[in-house]
Amino acid sequence: MLIGHGWDLHQHSANRNLILGGVSFDEEGFKGHSDGDILLHAICDALLGAIGKKDLGYYFPSDESTPKNISSTNILSEILSVIEYEKFSLTNMDITIISEKFNVQDKAEKIQKNLSELLEVSTEKINIKGKSSDHYGIIGDQKASLAIVSLLLDDA
Predict the structure, then answer these.
(1) Could you report the per-residue pLDDT of 88-113, keeping only the tens digit for each?
(2) What pTM did the predictor assign?
(3) Which residue in 27, 51, 54, 153 has the most C-beta neighbors within 10 A?
(4) What is the 3-state secondary structure (H, E, C) of the chain?
């Protein structure tokens, strides 16, 4: 069994739609070189970490070598190839999204369904929790949100 852990934090942007777990919502999104999907970025880092690869920024740096506004679903697809995902079985994934800007539970079912399709696992293997920061710090001021992911991989 291999354990992976990843996280990502982005500032909010009124100029972009919210994208979480590859699902678009008609709400304020995130600044970023890519589409700013903090959840898919955290998942990518967790997958890379589980098998001892470098972090997401190594494969997709925030510069001209990575296409501007690249979809994070495309990033995930590439990372799944890098780690040879077909050789593994995702035992479970535990997700925590910390935000004062949006309600995570209102979005959890759609995100869970999309992640299950992207990762080719049943929805029961994906747990999504929403937390607040009790109005403290950059998250509490609604300037940013954070995604944290822990996962377990096993040999297929």
Answers:
(1) 999 999 999 999 999 999 999 999 99
(2) 0.97
(3) 153
(4) CEEEEEEEEEEEEEEEEEEECCEEEEEEEECCCCCCCHHHHHHHHHHHHHCCCCCHHHHCCCCCCCCCCCCHHHHHHHHHHHCCHHHEEEEEEEEEEECCCCCCHHHHHHHHHHHHHHHCCCHHHEEEEEECCCCCHHHHCCCEEEEEEEEEEEEC
The answer to whether 59 and 78 are in contact (CB under 8 A) is: yes
The 10s digit of each residue's pLDDT in 115-125 is: 999 999 999 99
For residue 38, give both structure tokens: 């903090």
State both tokens at 2: 């291999």
Check: CB of residue 10 under 8 Å from CB of residue 72.
no
Strand 126-131 with 88-98, pairing: parallel
Angle between helices 105-119 and 72-82 in degrees, nearest 10: 40
